[in-house]
Amino acid sequence: MMEKTVGKSIDKVDTKTGKVTVVGLGPGDLSYMTPVVKEAIEKADVVVGYKTYIDLIQPLLENKIIIDNGMRKEVERCRKAVEMAEEGKQVVLVSSGDPGIYGMAGILMEVKDEVKSPIEVEILPGITAVSAAASALGAPLMHDFVVISLSDLLTHWEVIKKRLHCGGDGDFVIALYNPKSHSRTSQIEEAREILLSYRKEETPVGIVRNAKRENEEVIVTNLKEMLQHDIDMTTVVVIGNSNTYIKNGKMITPRGYTL
């Protein structure tokens, strides 16, 4: 874990305990960050996060202690955030999207409870990937939907498959996070096969890469042809329900209003 100070050094805050504020940066573009999150970062003594996310907010980090590290170091980051807050500092722990949706809020609270820390924890929401992707696709989430991560790093693949079956059987709109990586390529193929047992091949599918970032890519296709398009870890895949349709290149899932 790397610790550095941007600008002048920060002295220990003269309080008994500090605070950790867990924030969601949104999609990554500063224009999609909520004002309350920006204010929390600007007021912080210490900012802790995954290096890629820290890089996204460099303009806000002057005169702060910055602690960053790489992937799969979430527990280490949380322990360091708690430690710094116990020294009396005001700490911001950053997540992309929303910290309470596949983010850092849960593990931070688990670490705090494990060490019986008296620090205060605040959680500030952000725009999560599924809502950012949906806005690019039209209105695919207007009825009940589920979000399922295809990453089996922390969840057994058999459990994920069961959730895909449940989502398909329940006719939910289904959004897939972490659909495909360099080392994990078969899960998206198997997910498609599972959903084809519940949905027609013509079911609309939206594929959004880098939602609400500078290099955003949006594709509207169907369940039959979805694998013909590029899908990676920056992609959210949204699969419509039995009523979802495409109009003027946009996905629409009716809520059920009488027109």
Can you give a write-up of this model?
The structure is a single chain. The chain has 259 residues and is an alpha/beta fold. It has two domains: 2-124, Cobalt-precorrin-4 Transmethylase, domain 1, CATH 3.40.1010; 129-252, Methyltransferase, Cobalt-precorrin-4 Transmethylase, Domain 2, CATH 3.30.950.10. Helix content is 27%, strand content 26%. It contains seven helices and 14 strands. Strands 1-4-3-5-2-6 form a six-stranded mixed sheet, sandwiched between helices. Helix 3 (74-86) crosses helix 4. The longest helix is centred in the first third of the chain and has 13 residues, at 74-86. The model is unreliable at 8-15 (pLDDT under 50).
Q: What layout of secondary structure does this protein have?
A:
Elements (H helix, E strand, L loop, with lengths): L1 E5 L12 E6 L10 H9 L2 E5 H6 L7 E6 L4 H13 L3 E6 L9 H10 L5 E5 L4 H9 E2 L5 E5 L7 H13 L3 E5 L8 H11 L7 E6 L7 E6 L12 E5 L5 E3 L2 E3 L7
Parallel strand pairs: 2-5, 2-6, 3-4, 3-5, 7-14, 8-9
Antiparallel strand pairs: 1-4, 9-12, 10-11, 10-12, 13-14
